[in-house]
Amino acid sequence: MSYTHILVAVAVTPESHQLLAKAVSIARPVQAKVSLITLASDPELYNQFAAPMMEDLRAVMHEETENFLKMLGERADYPIEQTFITYGELSQHIFGCVPQTPC
Prior knowledge:
The protein is built from 3 helices and 3 strands; from the N terminus they run βαβαβα. It is α/β, with parallel strands linked by helices and about 100 residues long. Belongs to the universal stress protein A family.
């Protein structure tokens, strides 16, 4: 059995480069697709006065995460099929990204 699509869970850290390099080394020989998923930080609302500023902070953090994933994909030297930026419980999003196929 060979892989056809590998989903790599990454974070905005230097170690993600190593994770993606390993996934690419597995995917390349069998020409499998590679996709990335990450859990974005969501700043908590501490009080009602901070709410207007939090939306701006969320947008900035989302943009930084998008930029990191783009840079990660460019350095991979392998095509990235899709990228997913999620909030909340990562396992729920993974199940949503992976199509259910019978074994």
